[in-house]
Specification:
The two termini are 36 Å apart. α6 (231-239) crosses α7 (241-260) and α11 packs parallel to α13 (445-455). By secondary structure, the protein is of the alpha/beta class. The protein is built from 15 helices and 24 strands. The radius of gyration is 23 Å and the shape is globular. It has 2 domains: 2-133 and 342-498, 3-Layer(bba) Sandwich (FAD/NAD(P)-binding domain), CATH 3.50.50; 143-337, FAD/NAD(P)-binding domain (3-Layer(bba) Sandwich), CATH 3.50.50.60. The relative contact order is 0.15. α1 links the parallel β1 (2-6) and β2. It has helices at residues 10-21, 72-85, 174-185, 211-214, 217-220, 231-239, 241-260, 268-276, 298-304, 351-358, 389-404, 413-430, 445-455, 466-471, 482-492, and strands at residues 2-6, 25-30, 89-92, 95-102, 105-112, 115-121, 123-126, 149-151, 166-170, 189-194, 200-201, 204-205, 208-209, 292-293, 307-311, 314-317, 321-324, 329-331, 334-337, 378-380, 385-386, 408-409, 440-442, 497-498.
Length: 504
C-alpha cells in the first residue's frame, strides 16, 4: 500500500519502520520544520522520564550513549539518525490541510513552502501525538489588568526568565512540577498552586532506580487493568485482590515516607508544607498517562520553603498577581499556567469523522488503541502511549500490518465498539481524568503488549529464563525481532489469526 503517516515524532517513525519492513511504501508528513514531535518544542532542561534503553527502536540502539534520562536534544538527534539509518521518506514543513475519502483510500490536500498540492493514498495513519497540540489554556477573569506575564511551559525558552522573579506555577502534572523546580533552581520565589496534589514516582525506591522494580513482571503484574492476558494475572486480580491492594498500599506508604523524610529535623513549617503536597487518594488512581516522576529537587525545595505550596483553585487575576477561590491573594511577576494538554484534535479529517473522534472529553476511543471501527483505511500511532512507548508503537504497527495484509481477522464493528466501551468505562472508574485518558495505556503497558503479541501468536515472554522474566527489567531490545517472528509463524500457518476476546 501507499501509506501516509501524519506526524514525524517517535510514534510515527516507529510505525514507518515496521510498515516499511512489511513491504508498504510509507511517507511521513510533518507540519513543522523539525522532526521529533513534542521533543522539538519542549522547554529547557526537560528530560525523558524513562531511561534511554527503554526509549529506542528495538533494532536501532542509541549510536552514542545518552544520559540515563536523555535530554530532548539527545532524543531528537537520535531520531534524525534513525531516519537516515532506515532510509525513511520524511517531509518536513508539509501540513495536511484536509482529507477527502475515496472508495479505496484518501485524497490529501497538503501545504508546504512551495504552495498546495494533492496526493492520493491507500491508507493514512495519524501520529500527531497526544501532547503536540495546544495547551489547556482557559481564560481567567482579570487577566487584562495583571501587570506581569502569563505563560505556559511552552513559552519558556530560557530559564533566566525566572531569575529574581516572583513566580506562581498553577497545576500538578509533570510540567508544573518541572516549572516550579526549575524556577526555584534559578533563584525565583515560587508559589505552587494546585487543586489536588498527585502521587509522583521517585527516581529511586529504597535506593534502587524505579525502573527495576516497576518495569519487571514482578511489578507490572500488580497493575490493575481493563484486561489481564494470563491466568495467573486473572486469578491474582479477581481472587486475590487483597494481595494487589496490599502491594500498592505498601508502595504508596513507602513513597509517602520518602517524601516526608525531606522535612525531618527541619521544623514544623517544613512538615506542614510537605503535608500540603501529600495526596490522600489511592496511588493507583494517578497511574495515568500524566503520571510524573518527582523532580529530584521538588520536595526538598518544598521542605526548605523555596517552593510554597497552596492547595486551591485559581479564580482570577489581580493587578499584582492572582486570587484563589478561598480569597487568598498571591503576588507574582510571572504566572505559569501548566494545566496539561488539550485532548487530541483532527482538523484535517472530514467533519463526520472528526466529530466522531473528538466527541469524548477524555480523548479518542479506539479498538486496541489503533483503529476506529467506523473509519475505513485509517489508523492511529502513538495512542497506545505508555511507559514502554516505543515497543508499544512497534508492536502496534506489527499488529496493524497483519490487519492490512488480511492475516488478522477483526471482530465485527459492533463487537469492537463493545470492547472499546468496556475499556473506557474501566478507565473512568479507576483512573483520574485527563484529556488523553481514553487514548493511552499508561502503566498498563505490559498487559497491552502481551495481548497484542498473543494476537500475533508471538510469545510475550521475551526474557531468556524464568528468573529474568519475573525480576528482570524490560527494555526496548527485549522486543527485537517481533515482526520477524510473526512473519516466520505466518508462513507456517494455514489460517488467518483472530482477535482474542477481552479478558476481564
Amino acid at each position: 500500500m501507499n501509506i501516509a503517516i501524519i506526524g514525524a515524532g517517535i510514534s510515527g517513525i516507529a510505525t514507518a519502520i515496521i510498515l516499511q519492513k512489511a513491504g508498504h511504501k510509507v511517507t511521513l508528513y510533518e507540519k513543522n520544520t523539525e522532526i521529533g514531535g513534542v521533543w522539538a518544542m519542549s522547554y529547557p532542561d526537560v528530560r525523558l522520564q524513562n531511561v534511554g534503553v527503554q526509549y529506542c527502536f528495538s533494532d536501532f540502539p542509541w549510536p552514542k550513549k545518552p544520559d540515563q534520562h536523555p535530554t530532548a536534544a539527545q532524543i531528537t538527534d537520535y531520531l534524525k539518525q534513525a531516519i537516515t539509518h532506515f532510509s525513511l521518506d520524511v517531509r518536513t514543513g508539509h501540513q495536511i490541510l484536509s482529507m477527502e475519502e475515496k472508495p479505496n483510500g484518501w485524497t490529501l490536500n497538503i501545504e508546504n513552502a512551495e504552495g498546495t498540492s494533492t496526493i492520493e493514498m491507500d491508507y493514512v495513519i495519524s501520529a500527531i501525538g497526544q501532547y503536540s497540540g495546544g495547551k489547556n489554556r482557559p481564560e481567567f477573569k482579570g487577566e487584562s489588568i495583571f501587570k506581569g506575564q502569563i505563560i505556559t511551559e511552552r513559552d519558556v525558552k530560557d530559564l533566566s526568565i525566572f531569575s529574581g522573579k516572583k513566580v506562581a506555577v498553577v497545576g500538578f502534572g509533570k510540567s508544573a512540577l518541572d516549572m516550579a523546580t526549575l524556577a526555584g533552581k534559578n533563584g525565583a520565589e515560587v508559589e505552587h498552586i494546585f487543586r489536588t496534589p498527585r502521587w509522583t514516582i521517585p527516581f529511586k525506591i529504597m535506593g534502587i532506580h524505579y525502573t527495576y522494580p516497576l518495569f519487571s513482571r514482578f511489578g507490572s503484574v500488580m497493575m490493575s487493568s481493563w484486561a489481564h492476558p494470563s491466568k495467573v494475572e486473572q486469578v491474582l486480580h479477581q481472587k486475590m485482590s487483597f494481595v494487589v491492594n496490599g502491594f500498592w498500599k505498601m508502595l504508596s506508604g513507602l513513597f509517602a515516607t520518602q517524601m516526608k523524610a525531606n522535612a525531618w529535623f527541619k521544623g514544623k513549617d517544613a512538615k506542614q508544607r510537605i503535608h500540603a503536597v501529600l495526596p490522600d487518594h489511592p496511588f493507583t488512581m494517578d497511574l495515568r498517562s500524566a503520571a510524573a516522576l518527582e523532580p529530584v529537587l521538588y520536595y526538598p525545595y518544598v521542605a526548605k520553603g523555596i517552593i510554597q505550596p497552596h492547595q486551591g483553585t485559581l479564580q482570577s487575576f489581580t493587578e499584582k498577581g492572582i486570587k484563589l477561590q478561598d480569597g487568598c491573594e498571591i503576588d507574582a511577576d510571572i504566572v505559569v499556567l501548566s494545566l496539561g494538554s488539550q485532548k487530541p484534535r483532527f482538523p484535517f479529517m472530514p467533519e463526520n469523522y472528526r466529530s466522531l473522534l473528538e466527541q469524548e472529553k477524555d480523548g479518542v476511543q479506539l479498538y486496541r488503541h489503533i483503529i476506529h471501527p467506523d473509519i475505513p483505511n485509517f489508523a492511529f500511532a502513538g495512542y497506545n502511549h505508555g511507559f514502554m512507548h516505543v515497543p508499544a508503537a512497534e508492536v502496534g504497527a506489527a499488529w496493524l500490518a497483519a490487519v492490512l495484509d488480511g492475516d488478522l481477522k477483526l471482530p465485527t464493528s459492533e463487537d469492537m465498539k463493545k470492547a472499546i466501551e468496556y475499556m473506557c468505562h474501566w478507565k473512568r472508574e479507576h483512573i483520574h481524568f485527563e484529556p488523553s485518558r481514553s487514548c493511552a495505556i499508561n502503566t498498563r503497558y505490559q498487559q497491552y503488549l502481551d495481548i497484542m503479541l498473543k494476537e500475533l501468536q508471538v510469545s510475550p515472554y521475551r526474557k531468556s529464563n524464568p528468573v529474568a522474566e519475573v525480576f528482570g527489567r524490560y527494555e526496548a531490545s527485549d522486543y527485537l525481532g517481533v515482526y520477524e517472528e510473526y512473519i516466520n509463524k505466518k508462513e507456517k500457518r494455514k489460517a488467518p489469526l483472530s482477535s482474542l476476546e477481552l479478558w476481564t
